[in-house]
Specification:
With 571 residues, this protein is α/β, with parallel strands linked by helices. The protein has 3 domains: 167 residues, 3-Layer(aba) Sandwich (Rossmann fold); 154 residues, 3-Layer(aba) Sandwich (Rossmann fold); 192 residues, 3-Layer(aba) Sandwich (Rossmann fold). It has 23 helices and 20 strands. The strands form 4 sheets. A 6-stranded parallel sheet has the order 3-2-4-5-7-6, with helices on both faces. Strand 4, helix 4 and strand 5 form a beta-alpha-beta unit. Helix 3 packs across helix 17. It is globular.
């Protein structure tokens, strides 16, 4: 009796299903049809997207929220389109599994149909990039990719499956007769601190007088943010967040002070430069942290970096002390410290209060002086209409920076949100709508609002079709200032003639675009129209757009990094 046969693509789908993958994002292509058939048979939810980059961003957004791998499935030329999404996932260490249906291996190197070296292209942007050359080993390589994506420090991975293997038939039990027999998801391996090294770090903390914590996305991926909150509250150590990375604590949390960014949250400069010990947990000493150097980190301050994987510690060689430890294990150990730093903590809290008052006074005076809508006021007014379980996404240049300031102000005043998402370390424009759809897909009964710059929407707004297609209504509020304002402002400070060039847009009717697609659209030109318009958009139950005419206002970070000089505007 002949053995039951199964296509390579179906083996791939079965292996992903065994791992617990609950969502696949794709732009369906002929190379991927056997995998799609297998996913249909496995009853895996598949969302068809209007572009491969959109598929990658949706998978990334899904992974950031769930903290488990999602799949982006594309063909060979689609892989090239998905590379920007791979870059964005790499910057945030998001464990997306990128699967490519690739050209036949039989004639590899001979100019096959749509042949590209996808493995080599993906190599520097992933933790693991491999081409499967034996159909019997498909399940094995899915297991290897999953382990790479979720073990140590997470990150995206890439599997290339040649079309001849994708379509070929194999025994139904191909590759299942070898260990490990359990191909389901394993609990991630975590590093526990070496006792003597841990004791030394704890002693340094106990002997410090002005410690602060800078939290990175390693805390998020280790699911340890609740321990971070407990440490902040019990020990009264001020907590700051590395810019661009996943929000670790709600902006309303008393232990959270703001971003470790001198320009977007200037009280962090006073705290960092007055501190005698800085604990960076789950973060990198990268360009945002001046690579660990002065003047960002004073020479007199002891800098300690704690990371859950040795690969991340390698990025932190500038630290005075290094500790290999899962962030959660380390933070739980800190709870045993019988000391607190209330006076130092209260000083940072009072500075945050003063900072909020300064900005609140500024925006009130600015709004009275000029009846055009300020982007900071836009973000504040949008948040006033949101409930504590709603999701806020922001995307763009100045739009992003002003929204960061707005959520800190609103949080200090008690505003709670279900979640906040934004571009990651590479600050890739155009991810906002995709992330908004991901948030809505996982929170279908909550409102999801995306505040996007007009340039950011033009970069990735085509993803809005997935919201219509999948019945996932989100509200997109476009900060429309008629151009790439962040870049214009840099040019005006850099160019010798004080002008900007090649950054203007025509007057685009974004709201009418949504109406044409079957959604709700409304133009907003006055501040008092923002709240009522947002309420109408939510009440419509449709995917909606508020096209808000805002004035271009340079944000503190752009102002600080774009003074006229002979260097690049951003370093």
């Amino acid at each position: 009796m002949a053995k039951e046969k199964i296509r390579g693509g179906s083996i791939l789908a079965r292996a992903l299903k065994e791992k617990g993958v609950d969502h696949v994002f794709t732009l369906a292509g002929g190379f991927c049809n056997p995998a799609l058939e297998g996913m249909m048979e496995c009853q895996m939810p598949v969302i068809n997207c209007p572009h491969e980059q959109v598929a990658g961003h949706l998978a990334d957004g899904h992974s950031r929220i769930t903290r488990k791998p999602a799949v982006c499935l594309v063909g060979p030329e689609g892989f090239a389109n998905a590379v920007p999404a791979m870059l964005e996932a790499w910057g945030e260490r998001s464990p997306v599994i990128f699967v490519t249906g690739s050209s036949t291996q039989k004639r590899q190197g001979s100019g096959g149909f749509k042949e590209i070296d996808d493995v080599a292209i993906a190599q520097p942007l992933t933790k693991y990039s491999i081409s499967i050359t034996d159909g019997d080993r498909i399940s094995e390589f899915v297991d290897r990719a999953w382990s790479a994506a979720t073990t140590g420090y997470p990150g995206p991975v890439h599997i290339s499956l040649p079309v001849d293997i994708m379509f070929s038939s194999y025994d139904f039990d191909a590759g299942l007769d070898e260990r490990p027999f359990n191909r389901g998801p394993r609990y991630p391996i975590k590093a526990w601190p070496e006792p003597l090294a841990l004791l030394r770090i704890v002693e340094l903390i106990e002997n410090s007088e002005r410690p602060i914590i800078i939290g990175g996305h390693g805390i998020w991926w280790s699911r340890s943010e609740r321990f971070l909150e407990q440490v902040g509250k019990k020990l009264r150590i001020p907590i700051f967040n590395v810019p661009y990375h996943q929000k670790l604590l709600g902006e309303e949390n008393e232990a959270y002070m703001g971003l470790a960014d001198f320009h977007q949250y200037h009280p962090s400069k006073e705290a960092i430069q007055e501190s005698d010990l800085i604990l960076m947990i789950g973060g990198r000493l990268d360009n945002q942290m001046n690579f660990g150097n002065a003047p960002f980190f004073p020479v007199s301050t002891r800098l300690i970096c704690v990371n859950g994987s040795d690969e991340e510690l390698n990025y932190n060689r500038a630290a005075d002390e290094l500790l290999l430890s899962d962030p959660g294990a380390f933070l739980q150990t800190l709870m045993d410290i019988e000391k607190n730093w209330s006076e130092w903590f209260d000083l940072q809290s009072s500075r945050r209060e003063h900072w909020v008052k300064e900005w609140s006074d500024y925006i009130e005076a600015e709004t009275q002086r000029d009846n055009r809508i300020h982007p900071l006021q836009l973000s504040l007014d949008v948040q006033k209409e949101m409930n504590e379980e709603d999701w806020l996404v922001f995307d763009g240049g100045n739009t992003h920076f002003w929204s960061e300031i707005a959520v800190n102000i609103a949080g200090w005043k008690g505003q709670r949100l279900g979640g906040i998402m934004h571009p990651g370390n590479y600050s890739l424009l155009g991810v906002g709508v995709s992330f908004g759809i991901s948030a809505k897909n996982l929170n279908p009964d909550k409102n999801v609002v995306v505040i996007s710059g007009d340039g950011a929407f033009l970069s990735g707004g085509l993803s809005i079709e997935a919201a219509f297609q999948e019945g996932l209504p989100i509200i997109v509020v476009i900060d429309n200032n008629g151009g790439l304002d962040c870049i214009s402002q840099q040019q005006e400070r850099l160019f010798s003639n004080g002008k900007h060039f090649a950054t203007d847009f025509r007057d685009i009717p974004f709201h009418a675009m949504f109406e044409g697609l079957g959604g709700y659209g409304e133009m907003v030109t006055k501040r008092e129209e923002i709240g009522p318009a947002l309420r109408r958009a939510i009440a419509s139950g449709k995917t909606a757009c508020l096209n808000v005419k805002c004035k271009g206002v340079i944000s503190p970070i752009v102002a600080a990094t774009s003074d006229k000089r002979d260097k690049a505007s951003i370093e």
